[in-house]
Structures are given as C-alpha cells and as structure tokens.
Amino acid sequence: MTHEDAGHYAAKHPKETKYDPQISEALKKKISDGRITCTAVHKIAENLNVSPDEVGKAADLLEVRLSKCQLGLFGYGKQKKIISPAEKISQKLEKVIKESTADGRISCAACWEAAEKTSCSKLDVSEACETIKVKISPCQIGAF
After folding, report:
1. pLDDT by residue (tens digit) across 92-115?
2. Beta strands in the chain (DSSP E)
3. Between β-strands 65-67 and 135-136, what pairing exists: parallel, antiparallel or unpaired?
4. CA distance between the termini of the chain
5. How distant is the alpha carbon of residue 6 from its chain centre?
6. Of 144, 96, 84, which is closest to residue 120 (Cα–Cα)?
7. Maximum distance among all alpha carbons in the chain?
8. Distance separating alpha carbons of residues 42 and 88, to the nearest angstrom
9. Confidence (pTM)
10. CA atoms of 96 and 79, how far apart (whole Å)
11. Mean pLDDT of 5-28
C-alpha cells in the first residue's frame, strides 16, 4: 500500500474478513504509537502457533501500521528502508538467491531461508537482492 493508503489497511481485505480475538489481544499488547514491528508480529505468530500472515491480517483490520521490516524494506521513518545495494556478494549467497527467484522475485520467507543457509543476516540478503535486481515479494505478514 502507498502512503496515501496509510490508516486504511483493512481495505486490503474483504469486508467480511475476521480475525481471532486472541491475536487481537496479543497485538494490542505490542502496539506502540499505532505501530507494531515485524519482529513482534512474527513472535506473536510463533507464540500463538498461527501464520505471520494471520497476525498481519489482524493488524490490518485493527488499522495498525507495520514497522521495522526485518529485511530493512519498510518502516524506518522518513528514509522508509534501511538497505542499499551490497558492495560485495558471496557466490554462495548469490546462488541461493537465484535458485529461489522466479520471474525476478523472491519471497520474504525465501530470503529468511537464504540468510539461514548462508549464515548471513537478513539485511545482507536484502542488500544482495538490491544489487542483483531481484524484487522481494510477497511479504510473510502481507505488507507487500
């Protein structure tokens, strides 16, 4: 969604979309200034044994803004993202990214797996994707 859509996150979902009240309660405990971090969303999903997408959907329906993407892609104030192209990419990381890429895109989940497989940070993977012009989509929590 664009900045013009800020505060209208529920509009991404059909009007009849519902969320688990347990997810809502967990979200409300972690919201600060109308925002919740990507890390907090994933922790709630893990604790409640639900998908990150389910927690993200509940956040949308509650009109909570997502922040501080663990891949560095959104939620960092005026600068929005905190990544820039990598100066150097290991052959192993580039290979793992390319193996997970389809139609010029790699999923957020595949980026996390690439970080684990190559023992690098999630931000390193994002920066490598930026360098080799691979778009990251879709987001595990539904932000993009």
Report:
1. 999 999 999 999 999 999 999 999
2. 35-37, 65-67, 105-106, 135-136
3. unpaired
4. 7
5. 16
6. 96
7. 47
8. 29
9. 0.90
10. 29
11. 87
Instruction: Say if CB 131 and CB 42 are below 8 A apart.
Output: no
Q: Measured between alpha carbons, how far is 35 from 47 in angstroms, rounded to an integer?
A: 19
The alpha carbon of 54 is separated from its chain's Cα centroid by a whole number of angstroms, namely 13
- pLDDT for 12 equals 87
Whose structure tokens read 């560095």? 72
Neighbours of 37 (CB within 10 A): 17
CA–CA distances in Å: residue 68 to residues 48, 79, 81, 104, 110: 21, 12, 9, 24, 18
Task: Give the total residue count for the chain.
Answer: 144
* Cβ-contact 82, 76 below 8 angstroms: yes
Mean model confidence pLDDT for the chain: 93
Q: Which residues contact 39 (CB under 8 A, 6 or more apart)?
A: 68, 70
